[in-house]
Design a protein that fits this description.
- Helices cover 49% and strands 15% of the residues.
- It is α/β, with parallel strands linked by helices.
- It has a five-stranded mixed sheet with strand order 2-1-5-3-4, with helices on one face.
- β3, α3 and β4 form a beta-alpha-beta unit.
- The chain is rod-shaped and about 100 Å long.
- The N and C termini lie far apart (109 Å).
- The relative contact order is 0.14.
Length: 162
């Protein structure tokens, strides 16, 4: 009987050691899983922030303090370019050239980005009340201005005429 008690005690000791070992292993596994989840979340968060910063830099370069603009009459209405020029100058834009566009059949007023800085073109469009979908980009190194405004037949609905 003594042998059986010793055998039961040994079995109980083994189970206790095994149970303690399993508990210790489970605690370590939970701790490591928590660290992995934390690191994964942190990495995901940093990648999202970096991607967001890149998009912000691409979409909104800083507007320059002095935006040089060319105003072109594309609607054929006499004095339209002068009216837009006065309005832009009152709103702190530097109108460096006024003239006629190659034709007078432009339906919607356009802002043409000439240097690749869409933030400047957006600023001009917003000041004039032009829809942002009417901003186009035609980069030309021969132009010494930021953007061109081509006045369309919708000129009377825009801010300079209100």
């Amino acid at each position: 009987m003594n042998e059986k008690n010793q055998s039961d005690k040994a079995s109980l000791n083994y189970k206790l050691k095994d149970s303690t070992s399993n508990l210790f292993t489970n605690i370590i596994l939970v701790f490591l899983a928590t660290i992995i989840i934390f690191l994964g979340y942190s990495l995901f968060h940093k990648l999202q922030a970096a991607r967001s910063n890149e998009v912000d830099k691409i979409n909104s370069k800083k507007t320059t303090s002095l935006i040089q603009v060319e105003v072109l009459n594309g609607c054929g209405e006499p004095g339209a370019a002068d009216n837009f020029t006065s309005f832009l100058r009152k709103n702190n834009f530097d109108v460096v050239q006024i003239g006629n566009y190659i034709s007078f059949d432009v339906e919607k007023t356009l802002v043409i980005d000439r240097v690749g800085n869409t933030a400047n073109a957006i600023k001009i469009a917003d000041a004039l009340g032009i829809d942002r979908k009417n901003i186009i980009q035609q980069i030309n190194k021969n132009y010494f201005l930021d953007a061109s405004v081509v006045i369309g037949k919708d000129f009377d609905t825009l801010k300079p005429n209100q």
